[in-house]
Structure formats: structure tokens, C-alpha cells
């Protein structure tokens, strides 16, 4: 698994909301950032572009909603298409490309609920789920796990 320098953005993409998380520049710890209430693709991508710019993001980790058996259903295909559109929008808005790396998000919402309940932290569940996805990616990268769920990387 390649090591990406700099800060990463974690996304938990849902139909009504997008949970957003970031990590530190060393890629050690993820934290919830915010939740974007979905409006239009154009508005959503504009908000994400602003976050990418302000947070100095180098790549995006996008949760991939796999079925419990690991197969991809309609929601995973929809997420892949959305992520490709996001990559194109970021290139158009910010003038450079950002890799979008897919990561298994199975049980991330459940894990976020457990963490929030156990710690008493007041954070939006979708943002916490994005942090769980991003932290899972960071931990796997540190261990050298070679899982590959695909990526979008524009020329």
C-alpha cells in the first residue's frame, strides 16, 4: 500500500448527508470534521473543494458501502460514480488532481455509534463514521495491509 504524504480527507457518503473527517499531516489519527447536508452535486462538490483547499488535503479516502459478504451492490456502484465526479469537479475547481481511494466502510456507522456512546463525545454520527473509515485506512496503511478497493486517479 503506497504511503501518501500529507493530510487525508475521509468521506462517509450517504443519500442525505456526507460525513467528513481529516487526519493530521503525519497520517496518525483521524478526527471528525463536519457533516454536509446534501443539496445538489454542484453545491456539495463546492463545499468539499473548499474543505480540501482550507485543510490542505492531498488525497481523499471514500467509504465504499460493500455488502456484508464483501460483494459490491448498487450503492457501491453509485458511490464509485459519485467519487469519479468528485475527482473531476475538484480538478475543475482547484486546478489539480486529487486521488480518491476507496475503503471498506462496512460497520463504520455501528463503530461510530459505539465510540460516541462509550466516550460521551458530542459529534455528528456521519462525521464520526467518516473518522472511523479514515482511521481504518490509516491503521491498515501503517500495518502494510495490501487491501485494494480501487481508486480514481485522473491524469
Task: Give a short summary of the structure.
The chain is α/β, with parallel strands linked by helices.
Itemize the secondary structure elements and their pairings.
Blueprint (H helix, E strand, L loop, with lengths): L6 E7 L3 E7 L6 E8 L3 H14 L2 E8 L9 H21 L5 E5 L3 H12 L5 H19 L7 E2 L3
Helix pairs in contact: 1-2, 3-4
* Count of separate DSSP helical elements: 4
- The CATH topology annotation reads as Nucleotidyltransferase, domain 5
Distance between the termini: 20 Å
The total tally of domains equals: 1
Structural classification:
alpha/beta
Oligomer: single chain
Task: Report the mean per-residue pLDDT as an integer.
Answer: 88
What's the story with the biggest beta sheet? 6 strands, mixed
| Overall body shape | globular
